Fold Acyl-CoA synthetase.
Amino acid sequence: MVGASDGNLFSRRAFAQYERIAEQPIAIVNPRSPIVHGVETVARCQDVEGGIDLALMLTPQRFTIASLRDAAEAGASAAAIMSQGWAEEDEDGRVRQAELVAVAEQLGITLLGPNHLGFVNLWDRSAATALGLNLPAEPGAFALVSQSGAVGSSLVGYASRHDVNFSFVVTTGNEAMVSIADVVDYLVDDEHTKAIGVFAETIRKPATFIAAARRAAELGKAIVVLKAGSSELAARTAQAHTGALVGDDRVIDAMLRQEGVIRVRTLEDLVTIGNLCAHTGPLKKSGVAVLSVSGGACDLIADRGQEVGLDLPALSASAYSRLAEVLPPYGHPQNPLDVTGGALAKPEVWRRGIEVMADEQEIGFVGIVTSLPTSGEPQRDMTFQVVGEALRETGLAGAIFPQLDQDQSEYVRQVKAASGIENVLPSVDRFTVAAAALSRWSTWLRERVAPVGAHEADATSARLASLVPGAAVSEYSARGIAIAGNVPLVPASLATDAAEAIAAARDIQGPVVLKICSAEVAHKTELGGVLLDVAGDDAVGAGFEALTERARQAGVNLEGVLVSPFRKGGIELLVGVTRDPDWGLVLAVAFGGALVELLDDSALRLLPVSRAEVLRMLGELRGSRLLSGFRGSDAVDLDQVANAVVAIADTALALGPDLESFEVNPLRVSADAVEGLDVLITVRASS
Amino acid sequence: MVGASDGNLFSRRAFAQYERIAEQPIAIVNPRSPIVHGVETVARCQDVEGGIDLALMLTPQRFTIASLRDAAEAGASAAAIMSQGWAEEDEDGRVRQAELVAVAEQLGITLLGPNHLGFVNLWDRSAATALGLNLPAEPGAFALVSQSGAVGSSLVGYASRHDVNFSFVVTTGNEAMVSIADVVDYLVDDEHTKAIGVFAETIRKPATFIAAARRAAELGKAIVVLKAGSSELAARTAQAHTGALVGDDRVIDAMLRQEGVIRVRTLEDLVTIGNLCAHTGPLKKSGVAVLSVSGGACDLIADRGQEVGLDLPALSASAYSRLAEVLPPYGHPQNPLDVTGGALAKPEVWRRGIEVMADEQEIGFVGIVTSLPTSGEPQRDMTFQVVGEALRETGLAGAIFPQLDQDQSEYVRQVKAASGIENVLPSVDRFTVAAAALSRWSTWLRERVAPVGAHEADATSARLASLVPGAAVSEYSARGIAIAGNVPLVPASLATDAAEAIAAARDIQGPVVLKICSAEVAHKTELGGVLLDVAGDDAVGAGFEALTERARQAGVNLEGVLVSPFRKGGIELLVGVTRDPDWGLVLAVAFGGALVELLDDSALRLLPVSRAEVLRMLGELRGSRLLSGFRGSDAVDLDQVANAVVAIADTALALGPDLESFEVNPLRVSADAVEGLDVLITVRASS
């Protein structure tokens, strides 16, 4: 503990945590006080006999680099830096932080922080942390990573009130060197850690995070993330207090979804769901059953369950009749099941209920609503006893919880331990959200297809890469690239005079669309550069002249005029790939047209994507029923749509690092055809 | 206490509650045990000296009626009936319950229940209840009504963990006679009650409930409702355990919105928001400020705040500079405000923050994020002290809360009492939801227009009423009624032969629409009875013949063919009034077209409605931006749209009790006109 002092609150906390939790030897470094926290100090790290491994730096910001050199001299390979006044402050602070990192790299020291509250490893009993003192000392299966120290302290306080134990708790602060992604990457392979919870304001090192998430999926370990900054206001706020740009929340949301990471909205859910997943692991069957002493709770679970997508399967006929035998005459066998107040006097109803649910084809998890035990109400202890036995005997995963949020008393912990029940959740509401998340994650794991690897260079992509333009590109050139990438497009001819346009239109044998074609015009419509539903030689000829005249007036160099068949009807999708500065190419699929843009109905994924993932995206759109024949529209061939989207995505990837965006809008989808009507490619401004 | 016995859990609880809370004398009636709960019993109510006022009936179901007669003999005017086995059980139970009500009415007894847990009046200290024993005995300003007894018990348990005190707690159970609406109606006028919380599976007696809600609004008392049954599954479940049909949740939701009732989604929010409103009353200014020791909490409040519509005004320039003076260099003045860890050592930052926020034009409520006090951390007590003083001095309403859910310890209650802070909320998340609800309710109260009274019979409505058809009605007749009600419609002529149709079309001077007109056809399109965009004498003549032929083939009697101008462009609204069996006429406004129906974008209100309320409905539609000129569409005259909708609503009301539905679909809305293109009226099948 470098710079420890009795007058410093964080120093006192850090020493107290060390005493509560840690087993490794410690030295206190303070050149001015011979005794700190009751321990004899040394003046420098170099004075510690046998050297040191890790420096917990409580020094004021301005002494940090000197202390770091001293620690390195003493053999330290790591340092956790508590001080503030770095990148979170201002531009000068960012410069100071960069300097700190440079020095650490030169010294071979791994830095945690600055501006954080350290970390603790509960299994190895090492603690270099000023986190809240109620951090549970008993080791567990859930690892917690929090960018914010204050939030981390509150999270461990909540954990202590709900009997949640940790394998690790790590705060990352400014992440000058070690980021959340690095910590998650480490924790995924830790044998004691079965699930990981993350509170993040930003996710740095995308590739590391994604690789770790994939390994976690392989191992059946859940990652639960509360990512702040979904609102613009929060994005601004987060930047103010940690200096971190939060990134595009919609892109990060797509990435989390794609990698099976559970995203939560509240801190309580982060702890509750993470710890539940650590105990249950993935469910074998994703359906959830509920047994409750309160009919009202059944209603609330059904209502909230619908909001959050909880899968509550209806009971089989056999379950119905088996339950009818044990319920009082006013009971009604169903799921959620009101076991009625009678269960207080007759706890065997619980046992039978659990046995019946365990035999159901689709049910893999059961929630039990009951009052938590208090001394002097033995029938509640009995409920725990019977439920614990029934869960053990049937092997069904389950949780028990009261109706409203409640901390776990010492008495509850005793009864729980005696009954062998693992999961006591805070309330009906937390259960509903947690069970839905656990169930959805379990389904995702089962249905998961191996993620698509990095895009491999093959003959096609090599050919595509050679087509990448050095500058802006016309629609005609963009079409050539798309066609080379097997993207289905409406036919088009490039006419350079009226006669060619008329000839092309005659070949089409029906009304046509005329569009100006120029590398200098990305938005043709705004220029009046598109004519729809043009029929007859005269009209086509006149149209050609009108378009070239408009281009002339706008001072635009024209490649020519594109002549395509005019299409009517069908559904229009927008399929676009754009480059996110952090996360690379991002695919968006949305319904076209002003109305749906208004309603903000789109699905995003990072590239590359599999066909299965594209099908999932289409299913996420609120308007997805339109594709399967809603209100008389013809059902479309979803496979064909997915193939077209994958072709667009793969082509974009093949075009290499200079591609800025690749958009097919609209991709017209009907019962008999899927074809892009327009293509737009933009490239990075050449440097 | 009739039928009390030592062996009955509910009897023991009821007696214990009596002893904890009540001051009125009690008699225990049990013909078989001379002593129950340590008290000498009497055999019959009639044996109680001086008679009784109220019978708390713990008797088994089959003895209820005999006991009721005995209680009436003894002078009781009210009875609370705990037993199960009534309407919640089956058809026989419903018959038994009806019989019970008939007997009670004949005896002049008011019934609470059956199948409930009684009630308690904390100010008058009378308790006839078997609710959970942790019901706080100290009287308060918040009244709680729960249809479910088990939920009621859990709610009072939560209240006791969060220092919430009640004026009344009432459970209503099967509501054989006294319903939630009756109880709310009573509580609104209770002087001690400042806000009312309701857990309901069904809301009976709509008129009573609405009248009570309006009186509550007049008095500035909030009503907070958790209504179960928003999901289909819950609707089925609730019916199973209370025998109550939950009603159409969307209609009830519209009614609650219209009457300024705060609807919540969780039991915790019910208690938290109800109690908060009881303490603050309506805010003078609806903006909310946040001061926090944790930057992470600021982000979370911003994110969740956006989801739930929390109004967090940006700071004025003067607030910015005043805050910059007290913050450390790495602080950033904004709302939500991270006061930084420095505030721990320098609590004056809290005071200044509150003073600055109180001076802001739009801010009427402040939330303070800090750890709750524990003994041995005096700086936390100091935070409470300073915040309490600053709130008192500035008169700003405020609440203090930790980051994650936490029960209130005895120590917290002491520090809170000493600091004079009224509102300690459970967590950041509960605060965000509660502050948004309080703020929205306060705005609603300020902007509220006097509710439209019962529709008054005037000359127009008398004339309309005389037009009400006895049976099905053709579009032509429906148009006549709509026009009499000042509903703007597209012009139309009824042609009975081709020559008339041609003449009508010539008058229109443009393409026309031809529609078959028959009282026997509600859905013309399905019959192929509509021809759009018909131009020229020949086409109109042929169209007339084709339509009459289709009607003949379908065996439909035709009044004639309607000839109207063909309209293109504009936005189509659906405006429909239908009759709900419980709540009467309900107005729905939605965007037209398959896509929006798919996305389920509509707003509902009970009739009558004011113009202001209709404008609010239009604003609720997700697509409302379409009306104000989104993406190049012309902005429409919202007042004109609202007038048309009000005319439709008022016409429907004037048509009297036989009207089943009145629909104008589409109501075409463009920059220059608002007109209905089609009208459909249906009436109740004549009895």
In short: Chain A has five domains: 1-115, 119-281, 284-447, 491-565, 571-683. The domain at 1-115 of chain A is CATH 3.40.50.720 (Rossmann fold). Chain A touches chain B through 92 residues (CB under 8 Å). Chain A is about 40% helix and 20% strand.
